[in-house]
Structure formats: C-alpha cells, structure tokens
Amino acid sequence: MTGGPWPHRAELFRVLGAVAGEPADARTACAALGLPVPGDAEHTEVFVLNCPPYAAVYLGAEGGLGGEAADRAAGFWRAIGMPPPAEPDHLTALLSLYARLGGAAIGPLAPATAAALTRAWQALFWEHLWPWLPGYLDAVDDLGTPALAPWAAWPGWGLRPSAPAIPAAGRPWRCGPHRLRSQSPNGRMTSWKCSRHRSAAASS
Predict the structure, then answer these.
(1) Taking the domains of the chain in order of start, what are their residue ranges?
(2) CA torsion sign, 197 to 198 to 201 to 202?
(3) What gap in Å lies between CA 136 and CA 89, rounded to an integer?
(4) ∠ at Cα 159 (123, 5), nearest 5°?
(5) Coil vs helix vs strand at 145
(6) What is the pLDDT along the chain (204 residues), one digit of tens a residue?
(7) What is the enclosing helix (H) or strand (E) of 40?
(8) What is the DSSP-derived secondary structure letter of residue 39?
(9) What DSSP element (H or E) covers 203?
(10) Taking the CA of residue 48 as centre, how many other CA atoms within 13 Å lie in the half-sphere pointing to its CB?
(11) What is the pTM of this model?
C-alpha cells in the first residue's frame, strides 16, 4: 500500500486479509505467502484475545465491536451498490473488497466507470483502512507471536513510517486515532488499544 492503493498490489491484500479470517484460511494464506503457518491457538491468541481485526474497535467512540464505526463501513458497502456482509468492518472483508475494486478498476471499462471505481477504491483505502491498519499491524507485531508477528511485520504491506511517497500530513502515526497509536521515541506506533482489550478480556 506504499504511496496509496496501486493496481498491481490489489490482489496481494486479499491473501493478506485472509490471515485474519478463519484459522484454516489463515494457514492457506500464510503458506501461499511463504510465511510461518499459525496454529489455531496462536490465531485465537492474536485475533480473538488480543487484537480483534475490526475497524470499529479502533475507530469507534465505543471502543468495541459494532457501533457507529461499523455502521460507516456498512454504509460504504451500500454506497457502492453492494450488500454489506455480516461483519462489514472486519479486516478480511475490507481487504477482499479492496482487492475486488482494484481489480475491477483496471479492467476494460468505459473511462467514466473506471474513474468511479478508482474513486471508490481510493476512498476505501484512505477512509476505512489507512486510519487504523498501520497501527494495528504494529500492535500485532508487538505481541511477538512467532507465527503471526512475521505477517504483521512483512514488508510487502508497504505501510511502514519510512514510506517515502506518502505526504507527512496524511500519515496516521502523526494524526491517527490516539486510542490506537501514539508515537514512541523510535517512531513506532504503540498498541494502547490492543493492550486495553487484553485487560478487559482478562477481567471478564
């Protein structure tokens, strides 16, 4: 995703997103990417107990599943003429849609249709992925789970602060939701939000 949502990278993110989905899909995706393959326990530790892969958890005022942030994601699906899935803000669903729009935008289309698809594709990236995904990946990496930290830290995401083509004003480690990210001395986004989720789960 370095520099924005470019066509040649779109399909890759469908596979990356599958890692945050069902454990069986995660194993298939990780194997295809040449990454360590997580077991069910590791998958649950990361995506259920520590860092649930839902935009609403990190962007919504409620700090949990559903709510206004999930409604905004569902509204995006409807705005492009698609029925929202049961979990419209889940990372797997969002990256699958990102890949689908990206692939469609570079197809043999009338210029006006291609332009509309490109606008929708870019809106999905900047409004529903970019505000939380870089910090989320840092939080998963910080957990240090052997099979999934490499997924989160994989350079193929193209989301690290060194990305040269992204204007500073648009970088979420400078202006993103403070619940998910604060900038540490080494420039890395910290995982306050996931830590809070762990504490809540432990006390329940």
Answers:
(1) 7-203
(2) negative
(3) 14
(4) 35
(5) coil
(6) 433 444 456 678 889 999 999 999 999 999 999 999 999 999 999 999 999 999 999 988 767 787 888 899 998 899 888 899 999 999 999 999 988 887 776 667 677 777 887 888 888 888 888 899 999 999 999 999 999 999 999 887 865 433 333 333 333 332 233 334 443 333 444 444 464 444 444 444
(7) helix 40-44
(8) P
(9) helix 192-203
(10) 9
(11) 0.75
Rounded Cα–Cα distance for residues 203 and 199 (Å): 6
Q: Distance from first CA to last CA of the chain, Å, rounded?
A: 37
User: Which residues does 35 contact at the CB level (< 8 Å), separation at least 6?
Assistant: 19, 147, 150, 151, 154
* Topology at the third CATH level for domain 7-203: TorD-like (1.10.3480)
CA geometry: angle 150, 201, 131, nearest 5 deg? 50
Residue with tokens 């969002």: 94
The count of other CB atoms within 10 Å of the CB of residue 151 is 24
Closest CA to 65 of 77, 73, 53, 56: 56
Buried b (16+ CB within 10 A) or exposed e, 168-201: eeeebbeebbebbbeeeeeebbbbbbbeebeeee
Query: With contact defined as beta carbons under 8 Å apart, do 115 and 41 qualify?
Result: no
What's the count of helices (H) and strands (E) in the chain, helices before strands?
A: 11, 0
